[in-house]
Write a structure and sequence with these properties.
The longest helix is centred in the middle third of the chain and has 19 residues, at 209-227. Helix 8 (193-201) packs across helix 9 and helix 10 runs antiparallel to helix 11. The chain is built from 13 helices and ten strands. The protein has helices spanning 24-36, 54-64, 84-98, 112-120, 138-143, 154-160, 174-184, 193-201, 209-227, 240-251, 256-265, 290-306, 318-329, and strands at residues 12-17, 39-45, 69-73, 105-108, 123-126, 162-167, 188-190, 233-237, 271-275, 312-314. The chain has two domains: 12-142, Rossmann fold (3-Layer(aba) Sandwich); 161-329, Rossmann fold (3-Layer(aba) Sandwich). A five-stranded parallel β-sheet has the order 3-2-1-4-5, with helices on both faces. Strands 7-8-6-9-10 form a five-stranded parallel β-sheet, with helices on both faces. With 337 residues, the chain is α/β, with parallel strands linked by helices.
């Protein structure tokens, strides 16, 4: 009989799953394995039905446990069950992915640990099979991620939130709409930090290049904090791309660091909406006029097209815009769950 704690051999553990999403039950299994083996391999299965990309799920584990070997199992079998044929398909796939690696311990919390460990000629280590220590499953989290957020690492939870950004020139209704959407979806919204900063630090209605960079940085930091408090969606009023365009408009240039944040912003949000200029212009003292509004609106749209970013144009009343947003968010593939 093999000794689980044999000291004379290099012990290599393996665990596998879809990790959709990765939760504290998975963490318990991985951390148990890390205490018992010298090297741990995590094989992540792909699944075309799951809205969370394979690369995203792999990135979670690499970020939380940087010393692990993470294998992205592209083209993994989707067959489930315990017939002889299905078990053979699974075993052959795992063995083909591992190549010449020798596994000494196979970790799971599922019945397949029995046949998979046999195929690997490894010790069958099943962890918290009855879910007594960590009473959660990926299925429960997918059904109600906000309710079960305490079972999810912050790195993971942030990625489970569909991040929606509202763009548009000043006085296109972004702030009002973002706040109303947050109420409608029972979640959080990120106000435009630039306005708060401008009201405190502007001189003759102007901000420096450094001011604009600080605005973009702080906006991102606050947005990250709010993502952890959000329920399915986070609605943000503007992003670093808008701040970058303001810099170009004010100064004819932008700091390289701000330009870089604008580049990162291309992939920071899942869905982009542009609020149209079809609502009456609110001519307050801090704005530059309706003509300027339309000019800046055009710059925003041209920039989005130059970056090859898809966006949805919102028109009409606040209620009509909420209805348009809801329709987009309910479309297949536009939310994580």
């Amino acid at each position: 009989m093999k000794n689980l704690y044999m000291k004379d051999k290099h012990k290599v553990g393996l665990t596998l799953g879809k990790f959709a999403p990765f939760h504290k039950g998975h963490q318990l299994m991985i951390e148990t394995a890390m205490k018992e083996v010298d090297e741990l391999i995590v094989l992540i299965y792909d699944d075309p039905v799951i809205n969370i990309p394979l690369a995203t799920r792999a990135a979670w584990i690499r970020k939380i446990y940087p010393k692990l070997v993470v294998i992205e199992g592209a083209n993994s079998p989707n067959d489930t069950g315990y017939t002889t044929e299905i078990m053979k398909i699974q075993e052959d796939y795992v063995l083909s992915v591992l190549g010449n690696r020798t596994i000494s311990h196979f970790y799971s919390s599922e019945p397949y640990g029995v046949h998979m460990s046999t195929a690997l000629n490894a010790i069958n280590r099943q962890v918290d099979v009855d879910r007594n220590t960590i009473p959660i499953s990926a299925t429960k989290i997918r059904e109600a991620p906000f309710k079960n957020k305490d079972f999810i690492h912050p790195v993971v939870y942030t990625d489970l939130i569909t991040k929606v950004v509202l763009l548009g020139a000043p006085s296109t209704g972004k702030s009002t709409l973002a706040e109303k959407l947050a109420l409608h979806f029972n979640t959080q919204w990120m106000p435009e930090y630039g306005r708060e900063y401008w009201e405190k630090y502007q001189i003759n209605k102007r901000l420096t290049l450094e001011d604009l960079l600080q605005i973009a940085k702080t906006h991102i930091e606050r947005e990250d904090t709010l993502a952890l408090q959000s329920n399915r969606f986070l609605f943000s009023d503007t992003n670093a791309i808008t701040t970058y365009l303001f810099s170009l408009d004010y100064h004819g240039t932008a700091l390289a660091a701000l330009e870089n944040l604008a580049k990162i912003a291309e992939n920071r949000h899942d869905i982009i909406f542009v609020c149209d200029t079809d609502i009456p212009y609110d001519d307050t003292w801090d704005r530059s006029g309706d003509v300027k509004r339309k000019e800046f609106q055009q710059k925003i749209i041209e920039d989005l097209k130059a970056r090859n970013l898809q966006y949805y144009l919102l028109k009409g009343t606040v209620e009509e815009r909420i209805e348009q947003v809801s329709e987009v968010l309910s479309a297949p593939g536009n939310s994580k769950f």
